[in-house]
Amino acid sequence: MLVILTVLVMDKWILPFYVSHGEQVRVPNVVDKDFTEAKKILEHAQLTVIRKNRYDRLATPDHVIQQIPEAMTTVKPGRSIELIIADNDRMINVPLLKLSTLRDAQFNLESLNLKMGKVDSQASNEFPAGVILEQSIEPNQKINIGASIDVVVSIGNNLVEAKVPYLIHKSLLEAKSLIVESGLRLGIIVKKYSHELLPGTVIAQSLDSSTTVAPLSTIDLTVSSTDKEDE
To answer: In principle, which of 75, 186, 201, 217 could form an S-S bond with 213, CB 3.0–4.6 Å?
Structure first.
């Protein structure tokens, strides 16, 4: 009887509140609900659910700790709602990074509390510049939260010379992307204390941006740090 009453309430009052003339949907608030309940609510509101786990030792496992877009946002029916679900397991499945761009791979890793490790470059006759060819740990293997994954990125097959990009004041992520997109390799990263710049901001580069060098040349970076021991 309780189940029937719940369904009637959803169909008669809750669902009409979130659905307006089949054109717009007001996103329900499902934060703090368990995933199964949250999924049902969103699907009743004609929305699609994407689940992503995030390690959180304080939150209740399998409960929603964040939703994107936020509650009460107006969207079209069928819109994907990303649910970040609490997971207290320190092990996580490695995502597939191959054939994605370096930027997309970085954001994917960060969303899973993983890190981008060493980034190398390699010529490829098969794949265009900027596409990840290899990853150091294969997809679906279990690794610890916070672990790093190295990647190899294509520079294409027609590169005769590489123009050094200007990297000063770029974030380390931006610099890594520009380096591999230019057909170069990232070398040594040195940290230097700065109280003015955000951590990981490029302060110096070993190759001048006005020069043209051989493909796959190595460029070293100096990046800002908030640790005074890096002075």
So the answer is: 217
**Residue spans of alpha helices (H) in the chain:** 2-9, 15-18, 35-44, 102-111, 172-181
Q: Is residue 60 domain-shared with residue 111, that is, in the same domain?
A: no
Give the C-alpha separation, 131 to 156, whole Å.
9
Instruction: Provide the residue range defining the domain that includes 154.
Output: 90-158
DSSP codes joined into one string, 122-142 = E--SSS-TTBEEEESS-TT-E
Q: What is the CATH number of the domain that holds 124?
A: 3.30.10.20
Domain shared by 101 and 73, yes or no = no
Residue carrying structure tokens 């100096």: 222
* Tens-digit pLDDT string for the chain (231 aa): 554 545 444 555 555 554 444 589 999 999 999 999 999 999 999 999 999 888 887 889 999 999 999 999 999 999 999 999 998 777 888 999 999 988 899 889 988 889 988 888 888 888 888 889 999 999 999 898 889 999 998 888 777 888 999 999 999 888 988 888 888 888 999 999 988 899 999 999 999 998 999 888 999 999 999 887 766
Q: Are residues 131 and 150 in the same domain?
A: yes
Instruction: Put the strands of the sheet holding 64-68 in their side by side order.
Output: 48-55, 80-87, 64-68
d(CA 157, CA 159): 6
Q: How many domains, in total, are found in the chain?
A: 3
Q: Does an H or E element contain 205, and which?
A: strand 202-205
Distance CA 170, CA 150 (A): 21
